[in-house]
Write a structure and sequence with these properties.
The structure is a homodimer. Chain A has five helices and twelve strands. In chain A, helix 4 runs parallel beside helix 5.
Chain lengths: 204, 204
């Protein structure tokens, strides 16, 4: 059994989406004064690798704490859309064997660039792609950048996915990951919110 | 397959260890103004269900980000020490079939009280108990309260466990959990720190 971590570590210097707060991790207690080291972690809910809940885009949407835990584990397919350009359409996705309850991880051209500096022209899912995944009744969709939706988009892609009860994983690291089927574990912290930092693993 | 969540949700009113910061989760963006809801989460690293790293108690200790991910999954044994009183000793633990690489979850009398208000006389692991678990070469030890060590202790129990490379899970919810062997998944967020909030599951 091989376990691959496809989530990113959180640190104060990491890339965040424009207008989001940068993490602020600082020491709150120290061994010399308090017998122990402790920290305070301040992060925006959409920092690093995270899951969006419906409440992110829909005023009456479900929150992270309402998601059944069984949905955080299951079957994933990593699809190679690195040559599909910056807009991942239904057509690009139709080439893959996507099954009901799959967690579909989009390995796009973003994986060539990584998370060094923010790129406005990052690859994202189109509304046709969101409709296609909805029709396939997938469990979740994930992407190798900080948003599933194009920069300054109208949130319609988020709304389409979330209305159809599809979880959204953003901020995945898929560089070096072979397109294939895997067992998937993608676990957020538990609070009543619009999104939550998550740790995500593929198991082969 | 049955998955049981033994971690607690994070909220602003939750119980925290004395002198620790209470969580501060607040809205940072709203659909009416920003098209989306977002939050800022500020928490002390030892909030709710969490893992301690060696750096919590040892200046030169390993941090959470250095723990091999394989150690967050494995075999757990929930041991019933609800009748063992407030100090869990080597003798109390010697009755159980504890094996190398086990994650040992101490179901103590704390599970009768829960996390409503802070109790200074919470059940905790003794130094003899920590020595016993070290001799058994366990992977991790977990407890059903906010610290593995007695209130105002000298941190010797933490140091013993962490020097022996044993992970410490604190803030587990074991009420209603049948003492037995389980598959275990206990996954922290990833940062270079002294402790991290974790989501912990038992699988049967």
């Amino acid at each position: 059994m091989k376990i691959i971590d496809i989530s990113m570590g959180i640190n104060n210097g990491m890339l965040v989406y424009p207008k989001n707060l940068r993490p602020n991790i600082k020491k709150s207690k120290s061994i010399s004064k308090n017998k122990v080291n402790q920290s305070v972690i301040s992060i925006e809910s959409h920092t690093g690798t995270h899951i969006d809940s419906a409440y992110h885009a829909l005023s009456d949407g479900w929150k992270i704490s309402k998601v059944k835990i069984e949905r955080f584990m299951g079957s994933a397919i990593v699809v190679d859309v690195t040559k599909a350009g910056a807009i991942i359409s239904a057509e690009a996705l139709s080439k893959f064997d996507i099954r009901p309850n799959d967690t579909v991880l989009l390995k796009t051209e973003n994986s060539l660039y990584g998370y060094k500096k923010f790129r406005k022209d990052y690859a994202s899912l189109s509304i046709s792609g969101a409709e296609y995944l909805s029709s396939k009744k997938v469990n979740a969709v994930g992407i190798d950048y900080l948003s599933i939706e194009k920069y300054m988009g109208d949130i319609s892609v988020h709304k389409k996915l979330l209305r159809n009860n599809i979880l959204i994983y953003e901020g995945l690291i898929l560089k070096g990951i072979k397109p294939d089927r895997y067992k998937f574990i993608g676990i957020p912290i538990d609070y009543d919110g619009d999104a939550a930092p998550a740790r995500v693993f593929l198991i082969k």
